[in-house]
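Researcher: Go.
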Amino acid sequence: MSRVLAGPEAIAAGIAAMRAGRPVAFPTETVYGLGASALDEDAVRAVFALKGRPSSNPLIVHVSEIEMARTLVSEWTEQADLIARAFWPGPVTIVLNKSKTVPDAVSAGGQTVAVRCPRHPVALALIEAFGGPMVGPSANPSGWISPTTPEHVLAGFPGEDLIIIDGGACHAGIESTVLDLSAAEPRILRPGVIGAQALSVTLGEQVALDPVTDPAAPARSPGLLGAHYQPRTPCRLVETGQLASTPQQTAVLSWSRDDHPRGGALIGLPADAEGYAAGLYDAMHRADAGRADEIWIEHPPVNHADEHGAIWVAVLERLARATKSG
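Model: Structure:
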């Protein structure tokens, strides 16, 4: 059975499991990940098997500092150095051409690798104590809602023999920004809480936001293939005005209401960007655990012009992947 552990005991147990080739769930500031040695192809394949993840969907490799990242890429570029020194540890993933040390399973057979240094003391302690880079895809069955608490991980893998390292609730609550620096033009492959404007200022050149993908080529980033972030319960994104006609047996995720007009479950979300992002997946998990026939999510109060506009871009991308429109 899975065990939730905390403190030095958790780190020690996690390292022992990873050295035996078994995945370990660990916290980051974004979501909980499934950790395994990034340089052990069998361990990486065990992560794919546990998640039910397609082998065509690459993994992010987590490092504790820039020097560790250098060992994973064929060239640590000036652009990469600028971004890493500005945003690491933090929720920005850098895609570069990979070195020969990175197994093909990590990169889905492609020539690039996605690398980041997480901003969570438990994650950093685990990587440093392990002594090498770790893969860390979200600790949930492939395509489902990402976990932001140990309880979410437990719910996703009932009956599995999995060590879950407790680091509390994730602060950012949505996955990292993925920035592709392997080509001539810097490009965001997956939006996150660090947006194009901040990255452009750091690089001194424009960063494109619209991902360009070739269906015939290996994916360069997680989150580009298939359904993602979805509850088991059918989920719909609706406008505020539609809430008055919410059907019974519907769970409502709302930032504007303090009551459910038809008596179903109401789960509140903050109206500010940071709070909304941090609470979204937890609210979706709570709604999915109930007995609702459907989940309605009120369209967030997006303001692209404010200082947190990048977070709203990322939130809307996640909601589009998780729901059908109203």
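Model: Residues 147 and 268 are 18 Å apart (CA to CA).
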